[in-house]
Structure of Arginine decarboxylase:
Amino acid sequence: MTGTDSDEYSAQAAFMPGPSAAGGTPRKRLDSGESESGFRSRPKQSQLERDPGMPASTWRLRSDAWEYLKFAIKRLAISGGDFSMIAADGEVWRSLRSLKTIELYWGGFGQRYVEDIAELLSNGEFDKAHDMITRAVNRLRGTTVPDVADDDHLNEDERAEHKDRQDPRPRFEVLIVDETTEGGRDELHTDLLKLRNASDQFIYDYVIVPTADDAVVAALTNPNLLACVIRPGFTDHTREVLSRDLRSTVALAHEGTATSPTTPMSPLNSVRRVLRLADTLAGLRPELDLYLMAGAHIENLAGALTHRFRRVFRREDQFELHLSLLRRVQHLYDTPFFTAIREHARRPAGVFHALPVSRGGSVVGSKWISDFVDFYGLNLLLAETSATSGELDSLLAPVGTIKKAQSLAARAFGAKRTYFVTNGTSTANKIVHQAVVSPDEVVMVDRNCHKSHHHALMLTGARTAYLEAYPLNDVAFYGAVPLNRIKQLLLDYRAAGRLDEVRMITLTNCTFDGIVYDPEKVMAECLAIKSDLVFLWDEAWFAFARFHPVTRKRTAMVAAEHLEDRLATDAHATAYRDQQTRLFDAQTGEPAPDEVWLNESLLPPPDAVLRVYATQSTHKTLTSLRQGSMIHVYDQEFSHGAEESFHEAYMTHTSTSPNYQILASLDLGRRQVEMEGFALVQKQLDLAMSLASAVSRHPLLKKTFRVLTAADLIPEEYRQTERTMPLRDGLATFWHAWTTDEFVVDPSRITIEISGTGVDGDTFKHDFLMDRYGIQVNKTSRNTVLFMTNIGTSRSAVAYLIEVLVKMAEKFNDPHELQAEYSLDEPAEIMPPLPDFSAFAPAYAAEVPAEDPSKQLPDGDLRTAYYAGLRRWNIEHVLPEELGRRVESGDQPVSAGFVTPYPPGFPVLVPGQIITAEVLDFMAALDTREIHGYDARLGYRVILPKDRLEAKK
């Protein structure tokens, strides 16, 4: 792949002899003529690039190494090459060494399989080696082509293994952590084959590792794992050669566990080591089911370990373990609503309800719309129904399949409750606002949030207090709201005696441009000031984050769970009491100055109430039909009155005729991410880094385009990590940044600055990417284009985009070719600064304190202003030039509605807002094709001032 990091992805640089893992036995370096496990006559170490070790994302390295071996060995076999030719091909041996380490952590082949290939190659048996490599390649490709044409030469065990590889049933892998011999591993695999039954719905392979470190590496690198069996016989430190990055990541994963790996062995310490590993694996991959297989006293262990392990077995209970593994995966695989609607489509029925299209009634016999069926298929129509009873259930009052599907989604996303929404996250946001907020309560919200929040605030009658994100004027969009800005506004409300009016804080995580908050820290510090705040996290673009060990920690549901656990500890209660002595005067009880509160990392009271909601556009980043969204709830008050108000809001905004295809796709999308979410997200992030690397390193691309990094998107004061693209520097750096920095950048989004092309973002998007090359993108700014990867992005798609960017760069660097159409010789107009929210006009703003007008709080009444702006006699339309003259003369015109340009995609003006010169300058500089709420022929809608309104009357 063009531009990929050789030290991260290329098999040419991986798994050569390097520094041994921490605590492991150093490996002997191999020179030409030496042998170890079948590897002979390799080039000397001095001839090879030093090994950086194994990258955390191995899916591509593994695939590429097998593919290269297939190509290289076939070429040698056809050409009649001899051993001297393969001995000189360092890439072959590097690929084998890479795979020898990788295959320890993946099921299906194992290290001995690679060693056997190396032995065949060393003996010049290229055809046999090629057959074995082809079998591996076919498995990785998912092909149904037989591995070998003739298996007569295979022994009985090899023939059984070959037959197993052709089994079409869904396959998963089970990690076993146990220090065992090679013979013991063979025995385990033999027992597994005996346990299998033709009636089993799934099959699985074992991945057997000897150490706790290896178990963590497997969890980090192998997304096919769905369960882990821990046997107390494992040791702590790996003997494999791992990169510094991966060793550091393993150490980070172990941090915070209760028992040190150096604790001397004893029966009690052995239990602690097991618990420590279980906690580490659960933190990395909560979707993994953990089982303990112990010897003596399992009755005593079972009671103590139930909350960590799904079951505890004795070693002889292998069959019970087998059944438990299959049964648990069946629970993950279950899609109750999709199954029900599929059965409904197969069942004969008489339709006597108001849906002519149901079962194709109005379509199949038509002469004029038969192409409807041809295009979409008959199943779509067979599944259409107005029935909301029986197995299909009712979305508004679910008791059966929909209720179960939503419960499964709550489990997958770590929520207490989950609700399906079939008309997008815009509606999901309105549901939460209406459920939580009453008229005249204050909601603090980032001004550059999605327009649905502004509309929800208008509908609920809440008083809106806008939070200003930091501006990124060079690229014409906003970042996120700094925590101290949120804390200061809360402290201002407290000082004014109005803190009790503040009901909810709404923030966008992550933003359209990929800026990600630290939800746990934000909620903790805000609850320290007001302990019953409600939080709504708009995660429309972040649903995928739940399914990666690093990105997961910045999701709202994980943050709420961690915060709940933290508040329950004695250590937190002690730390909270200590901090209170610094925050409040012991004599008067008065709070310390605001500076003290802003400079401390505030701790919430142990009895703080956690009320957290997250809305996600499942259809945007996971698998779902258009408009499929979810609301995730982690509300400790939900069963104590909040559920009733939520249900009323849900009924208000949810159709009585929901789209069943959307509901079925949400059910299936949940199944997919539980079964393979880690694999898909890992691949997505990896491909995004490939794109970033290609643009940054290709001579022509880096001359024309520039990838924006954390240094461009996050001011330095909000970052502790020095590396500006942490994931590109390795998993450990990525982990560290997402643990420590106030804001981080979602690595799946690549924002490219295009000033070097001489055209604006809108032209670049429509005239070049879409019209000429068929490449679709969501967002541009004046001088940037956002490329979003997703779980459906392929390597071929990334390669095509790189190819297109190179072609475009060639054109842009030859201005004569485009001169007739675009003024490439004219510098792009400099954008004015992004305008902050000016203020609400006095008629809609908070009361001005008589003693100190400078302390006026920012909240305003959107709803009153909105309806005032809808009355024709109350407004006038003013063209920009005239409005500018009025502002210059000292007038303060008031916006009568929402004005939302795309880009940047949020309301620049809201009802009741004072229109300023800064806003008009910004709007005048935009050349976007789409502005909601503004008619260029008529101008801006403005609320008439009282004197002019009275004169008009």
Remarks:
- Residues 676-821 form a domain with the Aspartate Aminotransferase, domain 1 fold (CATH 3.90.1150.10).
- The chain has 36 helices and 28 strands.
- Residues 566 and 572 are 7 Å apart (CA to CA).
- The chain has five domains: 58-143+157-333, 336-348+355-383, 401-672, 676-821, 839-951.
